[in-house]
Design a protein that fits this description.
The complex is a heterodimer.
Chain A (H helix, E strand, L loop, with lengths): L7 H9 L10 H14 L8 H8 L11 H13 L3 H21 L5 H14 L30 H15 L7 H19 L5 H15 L2 H10 L3
Chain B lengths: L6 H15 L3 H21 L5 H15 L7 H26 L17 H11 L11 H11 L5 H8 L3 H19 L15
Helix pairs in contact in B: 1-2, 2-3, 2-4, 3-4, 4-7, 6-8, 7-8
The chains are: A mainly alpha, B mainly alpha.
Chain lengths: 229, 198
C-alpha cells in the first residue's frame, strides 16, 4: 500500500481534531490525536498558596506577603493550639481590654460606666503625664511635675476615702477582703507611679493617710504586708 | 487556526489584560481560569512530575512580568507558553541531573507480587493516549504538544521554541508521518504471533 505525504490541509484537520476532514487512511491517526488531546486535560489545576495569595490580592503582592484571610486562619490555628489555662487567661485579658476601651470611651451602660469611672479614678490616679491644659477646679493643685504636699493634694484623700467607702458599701457587694485587695493593688500602683525611687517617707505618709481615712485596720495591715520593702 | 479573534472577544481580552496589568485580582483570576487548563495539560503531556505546582509557578511568573507585556491575545498566548516551556525545560533538566526520587511505597516494592489491579492499571497506563508521542524526537514532541494541547499556531510555536516557522512546520510534518506509522493498523507487530508452532 502506497502512502502519500500528509498534505497541509490534512495536517491542519488532524491537529484541529477534525476526523471528517482527513483522508480515510489518516482516520486512525485522527482518532489517536483526539484521544491524546482529551487525556491530557485534567480537572482545573489548584493554585498553589503563593499564587492564591496573588489572586486574592487587589494589587501585586510582594514576595512573602500573606493575605488577611491567611492571617486570620493562622491566628485561629494558633489559638486552638493553646492550652485551656492559656485560653482562659487570654480571654480574661481580651475582655478586660475590651471593657477598658469601652469604659474609656464612655460606651458602657449607665451603672457599669459609674463603677468603671470610680475604679479608674482609684486605680489610675491623675498623673503628671496629663496635659497641662487639663482644666481643674481645684486651684491648690499645682501643675508642676513635683509631687504636691499631702495636705494640699486632693488625690490621697480621695484615694483613701473612695477605697473605704467602696470596700464597706453593701450596695457594691464588696466585703472586707475584696476591699482590701483593691486597696492593696491601688496603693502599689500609686506608689509605683508617684515614687518610682521608693521614698520611704512618702510611703509612710500615703499609708498613714489610707489607714486614717478609712479607719480600717485590715487595710493598713494589708498595705504594709503588701509592700515589698 | 486563528487565535485572538476580533471584535468583542478581542476587546474583552484587552480589557482583562489591562486590568490584570494594573493588579486587579478579578482579571488575574480570569487569566488563570482561561489559560491554566491548557498550560497544565501541556505540562502533563510533556512529562512534568509536578504539573500542578509547575502550573502555579508559571502563572506567578506570568503575573510578575505582566506589567511589561505588550501585545494582543495571540502574543499573550505565546508569552504564557514561552514561560511554561522554559519552566518545563528547567524541571526536566533538574530531574535528569538528580534522578527521579519517589517516596517509599509498598506497592512499588519489586519484591512484592503486584496485584491484578496494579497490573491492569500499569497496562492501561502504558497503552494510554498520552504515550502516543513516545518515541518521537524531542523537538517533534514539543511541536505536537504545543499544537494539539496548547492550540498554538506554527508562528506562535516558533516564538515559544525560538525557531523559524519553516523549521517548525518541517518538524510538524515529520512528527505526523512518524505517528501515522505508529498507529497504522497495518504496521508490523513488535512480537510475531506465536501460533505457528504446529
Amino acid at each position: 500500500m502506497t502512502k502519500h505525504r500528509i498534505s497541509d490541509d490534512d495536517a491542519e484537520a488532524l491537529l484541529r481534531g477534525d476526523a471528517s476532514g482527513v483522508s480515510p487512511e489518516l482516520a486512525a491517526l485522527a482518532k489517536s490525536l483526539t484521544e491524546f488531546r482529551a487525556s491530557a486535560f485534567a480537572p482545573a489545576a489548584q493554585p498553589s498558596a503563593a499564587l492564591l495569595a496573588r489572586l486574592e490580592a487587589d494589587a501585586p503582592v510582594p514576595a512573602g506577603a500573606i493575605s488577611r484571610k491567611r492571617r486570620v486562619r493562622r491566628m485561629l490555628s494558633w489559638f486552638t493550639g493553646l492550652g485551656v489555662l492559656a485560653k482562659i487567661v487570654l480571654g480574661s485579658t481580651v475582655a478586660a481590654a475590651a471593657v477598658t476601651g469601652a469604659g474609656a470611651a464612655g460606651a458602657l451602660p449607665g451603672g457599669a460606666q459609674d463603677v468603671f469611672n470610680t475604679v479608674v479614678s482609684v486605680v489610675v490616679p491623675a498623673t503628671d503625664d496629663e496635659p497641662e491644659s487639663t482644666p481643674t477646679d481645684d486651684p491648690s493643685v499645682e501643675p508642676s511635675p513635683e509631687p504636691t504636699d499631702g495636705a494640699e493634694s486632693e488625690h490621697p484623700d480621695n484615694f483613701g476615702g473612695t477605697i473605704s467607702e467602696w470596700a464597706h458599701n453593701p450596695d457594691k457587694g464588696a466585703d472586707g477582703p475584696f476591699g482590701q485587695d483593691v486597696s492593696d493593688a491601688a496603693h502599689d500602683k500609686n506608689d509605683d507611679k508617684d515614687h518610682p525611687n521608693g521614698d520611704d517617707a512618702d510611703d509612710m505618709t500615703t499609708d498613714d493617710q489610707g489607714g486614717q481615712s478609712n479607719g480600717h485596720g485590715g487595710n493598713s495591715e494589708g498595705n504594709q504586708g503588701g509592700k515589698k520593702h | 487556526m486563528k487565535r485572538g479573534g476580533e471584535g468583542a472577544a478581542s476587546q474583552n481580552f484587552a480589557a482583562v489584560l489591562a486590568a490584570a496589568q494594573q493588579g486587579a485580582a478579578w482579571a488575574s483570576t480570569s487569566i488563570w481560569v482561561e489559560y491554566a487548563p491548557a498550560v497544565s495539560a501541556f505540562l502533563v503531556a510533556r512529562g512534568s512530575a509536578e504539573p500542578e505546582d509547575l502550573t502555579s509557578e508559571v502563572f506567578l511568573a506570568v503575573f510578575e512580568t505582566l506589567p511589561t507585556f505588550r501585545g494582543g491575545e495571540s502574543e499573550f498566548r505565546s508569552f504564557v507558553f514561552s514561560i511554561a516551556y522554559r519552566r518545563l525545560v528547567d524541571e526536566l533538566r533538574k530531574r535528569s541531573r538528580r534522578g527521579i526520587h519517589h517516596e517509599w511505597d509498598d506497592a512499588r516494592d519489586p519484591r512484592h507480587t503486584p496485584s491484578a489491579e496494579a497490573v491492569a492499571l500499569d497496562r492501561l497506563g502504558e497503552s494510554s493516549a498520552l504515550s502516543l508521542l513516545d518515541g518521537l524526537a524531542e523537538d517533534q514532541r514539543n511541536v505536537m504538544v504545543l499544537r494539539v494541547i496548547a492550540d498554538l499556531t506554527i508562528e506562535q510555536i516558533a516564538v515559544v521554541l525560538n525557531k523559524r516557522p519553516g523549521a517548525v512546520k518541517a518538524l510538524q510534518r515529520r512528527a505526523l508521518e512518524a505517528l501515522r506509522k505508529k498507529v497504522s493498523p497495518t504496521r508490523t507487530p513488535l512480537v510475531p504471533p506465536n501460533d505457528s508452532e504446529e
